[in-house]
């Protein structure tokens, strides 16, 4: 069952289209992340769902109730949708308890019970209830903002880049805490973020936007391993994209002969591998193997437990109509055992390469 349904949403600001025929279904109780570069329309879409903006055309429904269509416009305060902005937007003249309890109905005792329950839910010490927002850390402020949004028992929770102002370690722990909390409470959630790793780890469903359009939707791992086009592949992480000749489940390319994820496509194509699918070895026995290819490490980017290597392939002969035979690849290696710059290495592949379905923008190789 889908909790939220967006159907053919259009929105323009002046002559510029902000949203162009966006349709999206969000399953009940799930977590959906909307990602895209700046200006892609993701925040505008979130504001449409919240009721802060209205589309020029299209419809939005939540749990079977129409929020927006050609004849209906339910205002934001009647939608029962929680919203957590990037900066928390706490009321500076109210204490933690005052912020969380803002808008709660009932007598003082019932409000206090609900506030205590919410503080416990977001792992805030009850002794902090009388603190002012400026006395809180960034992570604590975001927890108060989340508790305030949960106070009204929303049908849908919207998170607008809520972790972006936090440092790296706190961002990861907050993301896990919020994801578990929302899953435990069964609240359907939409997260808007420009952080790809955040979206991949947080969401059950990932939606990628570009220039006001929804270009691909699906499970995070599916989009990471099987993006439609090169632009989406590179937006979701480092990728090795190269021309190849595909035939009978194999691709012939600069890496040699590689398994691909389809047997239905044949001919010139673009293939994609993630850097972690490339294995390197500097052992003499490996360097003499026929399978795979040989390259030279030209750069090392040490990152602690992992190291990203730039490897320049040593191609035996011109591969494509006189084009350059050199090609640089990104390869991930153990940070401890990464080979030094100048090392000759053998490169092999793990798993299957993905054949991009959108038209290639680079020249594809000819049939071998």
From TrEMBL:
<dbReference type="GO" id="GO:0015697">
    <property type="term" value="P:quaternary ammonium group transport"/>
</dbReference>
<keyword id="KW-0410">Iron transport</keyword>
<dbReference type="GO" id="GO:0005524">
    <property type="term" value="F:ATP binding"/>
</dbReference>
<keyword id="KW-0067">ATP-binding</keyword>
<dbReference type="InterPro" id="IPR003439">
    <property type="entry name" value="ABC_transporter-like_ATP-bd"/>
</dbReference>
<keyword id="KW-0406">Ion transport</keyword>
<keyword id="KW-1003">Cell membrane</keyword>
<dbReference type="Pfam" id="PF00005">
    <property type="entry name" value="ABC_tran"/>
</dbReference>
<dbReference type="InterPro" id="IPR050093">
    <property type="entry name" value="ABC_SmlMolc_Importer"/>
</dbReference>
<dbReference type="InterPro" id="IPR017871">
    <property type="entry name" value="ABC_transporter-like_CS"/>
</dbReference>
<keyword id="KW-0813">Transport</keyword>
<protein>
    <submittedName>
        <fullName>ABC transporter ATP-binding protein</fullName>
    </submittedName>
</protein>
<dbReference type="InterPro" id="IPR027417">
    <property type="entry name" value="P-loop_NTPase"/>
</dbReference>
<feature type="domain" description="ABC transporter">
    <location>
        <begin position="4"/>
        <end position="236"/>
    </location>
</feature>
<keyword id="KW-0547">Nucleotide-binding</keyword>
<dbReference type="InterPro" id="IPR015853">
    <property type="entry name" value="ABC_transpr_FbpC"/>
</dbReference>
<dbReference type="InterPro" id="IPR008995">
    <property type="entry name" value="Mo/tungstate-bd_C_term_dom"/>
</dbReference>
<dbReference type="GO" id="GO:0015408">
    <property type="term" value="F:ABC-type ferric iron transporter activity"/>
</dbReference>
<dbReference type="InterPro" id="IPR003593">
    <property type="entry name" value="AAA+_ATPase"/>
</dbReference>
<keyword id="KW-0472">Membrane</keyword>
<keyword id="KW-0408">Iron</keyword>
<dbReference type="GO" id="GO:0016887">
    <property type="term" value="F:ATP hydrolysis activity"/>
</dbReference>
<dbReference type="GO" id="GO:0016020">
    <property type="term" value="C:membrane"/>
</dbReference>
